[in-house]
Amino acid sequence: MASSNSLYNVAPIPGDNNTGSGARAGWYGSNSVVSSNTTISNVNVSSTSTILITPKVTGGGNTNAPAILSQTTGSFVVNWANYPATGSLYWYILN
């Protein structure tokens, strides 16, 4: 079965921000988390974008899974209730 993937980026492993990773530069990245709601600005985001988020917890007790709270053209907000003492979000914009 053949399928087209022209609308999607190939997601690299977390933290692999080099141009040889297979993903288009500017469509992925990471942010430190310092509050329950983290706004991530990116010119490639639209209100209908498909975005993957992956948490990385390096210290700090119990936590909940992060979730995208809202998104508009140019940014999206990730809610991470009960976020850890030391944590980061890796994100990939698929389209």
Explained architecture:
The chain is an all-beta fold. It has a domain at 30-93. Helix content is 0%, strand content 40%. The chain has strands at 28-32, 37-41, 51-59, 67-72, 75-79, 86-93. The chain has a 3-stranded antiparallel β-sheet, with no helix packed on it. The radius of gyration is 14 Å and the shape is globular.
Summarize, please:
This protein is mainly beta and 95 residues long.
How would the blueprint of this fold be written?
Elements: E1 28-32, E2 37-41, E3 51-59, E4 67-72, E5 75-79, E6 86-93
Antiparallel strand pairs: 1-6, 2-5, 3-6, 4-5
**Low-pLDDT sequence parts:** 1-16
Biggest sheet strand order reads 1-6-3
Instruction: Tell me, briefly, the overall form.
Output: globular
Write down the overall mean pLDDT.
79
Percent of residues in β-strands: 35-45%
Sheet having the most strands: 3 strands, antiparallel
Number of strands: 6
How do the helices and strands follow one another from N- to C-terminus? EEEEEE
Question: In angstroms, what is the radius of gyration?
Answer: 14 Å
The helicity comes to under 10%
Number of helices: 0
- Structural class, from secondary structure content? mainly beta
Query: What is the end-to-end distance?
Result: 22 Å
